[in-house]
Amino acid sequence: MRKITTLVLAALLGMTAIIRADRPKDLVTSLPDCGPSLPTKWYSGYLDVSDTKSLHYVFVTSASDKASTDPVVVWFNGGPGCSSLLALFAEHGPFVFDDGESVIKPNPEPWNKRANVLYIESPAGVGFSFAKTTEDWNHNDISSSLDSLKALQIFFTDFKEYLGNDLWISGESYAGIYVPYLSW
C-alpha cells in the first residue's frame, strides 16, 4: 500500500525524486507558555490554492524516533466553519487548553506521538484561511475538496521528505463529507 500511495502522490505532483525541501519561513520556534522551545518541528503558514485563496496550515512533526517514516495524518475539523486549530489546541495536539482552564499544558497523548500531523483550515474563510474575492467565499463540497487537494499537492511539493510516508486523511463532524470527497 505504501508504494501505491507514493506512486499516486508522485504522479499527482509530477515528481521523480524525493528530496528534502521544507518551508523554513514557516518554522515555528516557540509558543507562549510552552517552554523555551517546541519538542518537535512545527510549521505554520499558507498554502496558496489560487491567486486569491489561501488555506492556513499547521504541520506538527512526529515525536517518535521514526518521524521520517511515520504516517502523515491530515486533519480537518467540520462545521462547516470550524477551525482545525480547535483539534490542535483542545483535542489531540501536543499542547492543549482543557475545558474551564486558561493555561496551555502538554498533552500526555498527542497524535504526533507516532504521526506527523497536518492541520488544514478549510474551506477558505475558516480560521486564518482567507479569500480575496466574493466568488472565492462561495464553497460547495466539490470546490472545498479541490482546494484541499491543491493544498496537499503544494504541501508535498514543499515537504518532499514525507512523500513516501503513509497518508491518512481524517476529521470530525462535517469532515465526514470533506474526507471522502478529498480521498475520492
Annotation keywords:
184 residues, alpha+beta, Rossmann fold, 5 helices, 9 strands, 23% strand
Helix content: 25-40%
Question: What's the pLDDT, averaged over the residues?
Answer: 88
Helix count equals 5
Quickly give the CATH architecture.
Answer: 3-Layer(aba) Sandwich
Estimate what percentage of residues fall within beta strands.
15-25%
H/E series, N to C? HEEEEHEEEEHHEH
CATH class: Alpha Beta
Describe this structure in words.
- The chain has helices spanning 2-13, 85-90, 134-137, 141-158, 175-183, and strands at residues 27-28, 42-50, 53-60, 72-76, 95-97, 104-106, 116-120, 130-131, 167-171.
- The protein is an alpha+beta fold and 184 residues long.
- It has a single domain, classed as 3-Layer(aba) Sandwich (Rossmann fold).
- The strands form 2 sheets. Strands 1, 2, 3, 4, 7, 8 and 9 form a 7-stranded mixed sheet that branches.
- The longest helix is centred in the last third of the chain and has 18 residues, at 141-158.
- The protein is globular.
What is shown here, in short?
The protein is 27% helix and 23% strand. It is of the alpha+beta class and 184 residues long.
Topology record:
Layout: H1 2-13, E1 27-28, E2 42-50, E3 53-60, E4 72-76, H2 85-90, E5 95-97, E6 104-106, E7 116-120, E8 130-131, H3 134-137, H4 141-158, E9 167-171, H5 175-183
Parallel strand pairs: 4-7, 4-9
Antiparallel strand pairs: 1-2, 2-3, 3-7, 3-8, 5-6
Helix pairs in contact: 4-5
